[in-house]
Amino acid sequence: MNITWLGHGGFRIEMGDQVLLIDPWLTGNPSFPDDRRDDAIAGATHILLTHGHFDHTDGIADIAKETGAPILAMVELAGLLEHQGLETIGFNFGGTVMAGDVAVSLVPASHSSSIMIKEKLVYSGAPAGFMLSHDGRTIYISGDTGPMADMEWMAELYEPEIGILSAGGHFTMDMKGAAFVAKKYFNFKTVIPCHYKTFPLLEQSAEALVEGLPGVSVTTPDVMETITL
Q: CA gyration radius for the chain?
């Protein structure tokens, strides 16, 4: 599989027969190079949204219309986007949707979720993470979250080998917190941090995560750098 960081919490994941865009905040993202937009969204088959905050959903309508990719999200967020004329698939915790030959399962996150509609913040359902499974391999995408006990059953049920963890602090767990949950609950072979470096108030380095996970491959790609696992 190929994993490309789009900056902040966004990823392009080529897995099985799918090209999945996770929280692809491109427009207005200070860490994303505008001249790489076409490369980022080319061939997208589905868009996955963890929650409604602007730094995960701004510009999503344009991407959905350009690619023709349906949006998979928590049912309330999917409903709000559907009312804007977008194709959506809404589901809820414990539910699994097939995106081609990739199983996409919705799992809890400890955060909040709202989206701006007509200059008003609107509740957009519970925040979430995803488990992506194909051919015996599973990726856990934490979404914006703090440490939580739910990670124990999530790890036991889905057995992810790759963890993409929001770890910038302030709005989510920090690098030390991400290392803590990775050790306590999961058995990752590879961990990729995200939701950091975008703004000055976020952590600028993954050093604490690397130091906290000896024996785990902590991979820190540059924006628009593709890693193959």
A: 16
